[in-house]
Structure formats: C-alpha cells, structure tokens
Write a structure and sequence with these properties.
0% strand; mainly alpha
Length: 147
C-alpha cells in the first residue's frame, strides 16, 4: 500500500507541476500581470484559480461520501477555526511576497526543474524562512507534524 501511495503522489505531483507549467504560472511575470489592473493585466491566473476551486470542491464532495481515502490513512479535513491575527498577518505576508517575487511554493518547487537561479534562491529562502518560523515558535522542524 505504501508503494501505491508514493506512486500516486508522484503521478499527481507531476500532473500538478505540468498544469502549473501549462498555465504559465512558473513565469513570475504572469503573476505580476494578473495583479496589475492598470498595466498589462493578464487574467489567466484567475482561470487557474477557478479550475483549482472546481477540482478541490469535487474532491471535497467525493471525500464526504467515503469513509476513508482509497489509498488508506485518513482524510485531513480542517476543522473550522476563527479568523485571527496570525492568519491575517500570515496571509498578508504571503500575498505581498507573492506579488513582489511572482512565486509561491507550488510554482517554485515545480520551477526547480527549469534550473533558473532565481527559483533556487527563492526556494532556499522559503525553506530557511519556514525553519526560522518554526524555531521561533519553538516547534520541532524535522520528524514532527506541525498543526
């Protein structure tokens, strides 16, 4: 069963990376142009978001009909939590960084295959930032799931 889960993750991750590439999301200019309403606005990212929302909504509906995932384990459906200050600050920082750099974690990891130095710098910086955040909050970085 573990081999099937790994293979499924590999196939789905490859499809996700291919989809990001096809949508042009690996190009930071696509992101900046989507956010630039008064310049060379490019609406393609909106269609990517809409497609992602449809796929995730369908997956959520299917998960509600099943007792457990097809490849074992359990569903990780988040419990409703209030919108608090750390969520708002984290979301704002994510959005500001995404708008400034034109990359977020998914496209950056998929973009590693392109061999662009800027993507490597972003990815290393992102990982350092994640580790620093977890250390700052006193969480263990390796070997423990952070909730």
């Amino acid at each position: 069963m573990k081999a099937a889960r790994i293979m499924a993750a590999l196939v789905i991750g490859t499809m996700f990376g291919f989809g990001l590439t096809l949508a042009g999301v690996l190009d930071p200019a696509t992101i900046r142009n989507f956010l630039d309403f008064f310049g060379p606005f490019d609406p393609r990212l909106g269609f990517v978001f809409a497609g992602a929302l449809l796929v995730s909504a369908a997956g959520y509906l299917v998960s509600r009909q099943r007792r457990e995932p097809a490849l074992g384990g359990g569903f990780a459906i988040p419990a409703g939590r209030p919108i608090d200050q750390p969520l708002v600050i984290g979301s704002a920082l994510f959005g500001i960084g995404w708008g400034m750099v034109g990359l977020c974690p998914g496209p950056a990891i998929a973009g590693l295959a392109l061999g662009l130095p800027s993507v490597y710098i972003f990815t290393v910086s992102m990982l350092v930032g994640i580790a620093a955040h977890d250390l700052w909050l006193g969480r263990r970085v390796a070997g423990e799931a952070v909730a």
